[in-house]
């Protein structure tokens, strides 16, 4: 049995066409080589979504894993070499849920010294405490498996990936800048429409059309101010010629006529928006109610709720299993560490490119998605009677995927939440839980329905 555990997750290796590309292959192979050279009583645990099996549209069943092995021979050979020196364990996530459905995967992965445990959650003993390990999809209503181990019982998230993500991989080469393949990095899936609109505007729109639209958007606020000022002049609250027939504006010459044209077009657009606003409001409310009845998009992991459902699940585990000192999960692609007294909740993040929505310096221009990598891993090991959790990031070149225009208008995203390099807890120490549903999330992004009862993490002994 190992005395030290290393955790990574959400590699999402695999997928049709452009999704086959593994941006971090060199870093992953180097990471595995270092584990091999260090050796010792170490177990590497990949807690879900090691593979992107859902991202294949034509391959099905066990053929999907064969495609991953075929497309990434260098990684699998390094798995084999590293697995000769240390233990490597996989558990299924949602994107590689097939690993829980076909027993033949156990023997196939064993050929590369990978041990598959097809469970929702597993545990490991460290010092006098227990580490609870899961992927976390069971706390996300859009990706929760209704019948674990049944390959035909699939959540709504599967069909979104099959119809949208896999298609994006096939058509990515037709896009300007190959941006479509980054659809895997858009989380949660509700963000996909806004991400598509943003990339259409900044990358796919005709340059001539964009040259016309951008000034209209930039002067939209000026148009509103102009209309408001004109009304104030008409009712006598402002003297005339402040906005209308202002001599300073007339002095602009030809630029004045261009400005008046832009304002006139925007006035027409504003009028149309006002006419459509009321029916659109009724349509949007009815659509939300309809989607809510089907449990789509309005439950589970949603924009604005952070990691609350997963923290609630950790709370349930700590309360029902007093020996558990560390709760490890992934799924949300946001690395974090939350400490409650002598208990720790760890989110292992992702090695995929991360896309963070940021606003522009000009409020009417669409927001854009700032790319970055945060390749990371956690180590958990005993130190006397205590359990130590160490965090480390792997240096890598950050992507330069933004166009010059995007770089010009984009605000810089906030720095990611700092994760302490070392955290030590006493498994026999006190559990200091915040009130249910309260307290800050590790990183503000997506989350669950605050009105939904927290889901208890499953006990692997219940199977």
TrEMBL record:
Residues annotated as transmembrane: 208-228, 261-283
Molecular functions per Gene Ontology: metal ion binding
Biased segments, Basic and acidic residues type: 449-463
InterPro entries linked: Calcineurin-like_PHP, LpxH-like, Metallo-depent_PP-like
Listed SUPFAM superfamilies: Metallo-dependent phosphatases
Region Disordered: start-end pairs: 411-463
Domain Calcineurin-like phosphoesterase: 6-137
UniProt entry keywords in alphabetical sequence: Cell inner membrane, Cell membrane, Manganese, Membrane, Metal-binding, Transmembrane, Transmembrane helix
Pfam families per the UniProt record, alphabetical: Metallophos
Listed name of the protein: Metallophosphoesterase
Biological source species: Saliphagus infecundisoli
């Amino acid at each position: 049995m190992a005395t030290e555990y290393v955790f990574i997750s959400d590699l999402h290796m695999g997928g049709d066409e452009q999704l086959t590309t593994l941006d971090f292959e060199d870093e992953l192979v180097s990471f595995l080589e270092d584990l091999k050279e260090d050796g010792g009583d170490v177990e590497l645990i990949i807690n879900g979504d090691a593979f992107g099996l859902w991202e294949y549209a034509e391959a099905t069943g066990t053929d999907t894993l064969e495609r991953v092995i075929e497309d990434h021979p260098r990684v699998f050979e390094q798995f084999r070499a590293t697995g000769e020196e240390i233990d490597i364990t996989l558990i299924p996530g949602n994107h590689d849920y097939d690993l829980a459905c076909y027993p033949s995967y156990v023997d196939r992965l064993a050929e590369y010294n990978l041990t598959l445990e097809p469970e929702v959650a597993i545990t490991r003993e460290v010092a006098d405490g227990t580490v609870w390990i899961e992927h976390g999809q069971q706390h996300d209503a859009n990706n929760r498996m209704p019948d674990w181990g049944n390959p035909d019982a699939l959540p709504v998230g599967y069909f979104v990936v099959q119809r949208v993500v896999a298609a994006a991989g096939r058509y990515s080469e037709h896009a300007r800048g190959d941006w479509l393949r980054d659809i895997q990095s858009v989380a949660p899936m509700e963000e996909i429409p806004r991400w598509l609109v943003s990339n259409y505007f900044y990358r796919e729109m005709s340059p001539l059309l964009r040259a016309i639209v951008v000034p209209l958007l930039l002067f939209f606020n000026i148009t509103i101010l102009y209309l408001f000022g004109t009304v104030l002049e008409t009712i006598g609250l402002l003297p005339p010629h402040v906005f209308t027939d202002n001599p300073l504006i007339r002095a602009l010459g030809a630029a004045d006529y261009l400005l008046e044209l832009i304002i006139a077009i925007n006035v027409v657009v504003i009028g149309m928006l006002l006419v459509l606003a009321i029916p659109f409001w009724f349509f949007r409310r009815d659509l939300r109610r309809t989607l809510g009845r089907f449990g789509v998009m309005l439950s589970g992991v949603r924009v604005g709720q952070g990691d609350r459902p997963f923290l609630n699940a950790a709370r349930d585990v700590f309360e029902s299993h007093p020996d558990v000192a560390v709760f490890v999960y992934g799924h949300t692609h946001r690395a974090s560490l939350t400490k409650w007294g002598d208990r720790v909740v760890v989110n292992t993040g992702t090695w995929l490119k991360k896309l963070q929505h940021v606003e522009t310096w000009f409020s009417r221009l669409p927001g854009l998605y700032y790319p970055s990598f945060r390749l990371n891993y956690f180590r958990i090991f005993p130190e006397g009677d205590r359990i130590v959790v160490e965090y480390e990031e792997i240096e890598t070149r950050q992507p330069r995927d933004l166009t010059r225009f995007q770089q010009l208008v984009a605000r810089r995203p906030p720095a990611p939440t700092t994760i302490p390099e070392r955290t030590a807890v006493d498994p026999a120490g006190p559990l200091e839980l915040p009130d249910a549903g309260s307290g800050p999330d590790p990183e503000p992004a997506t989350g669950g329905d605050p009105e939904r009862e927290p889901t208890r993490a499953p006990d692997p002994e219940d199977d």
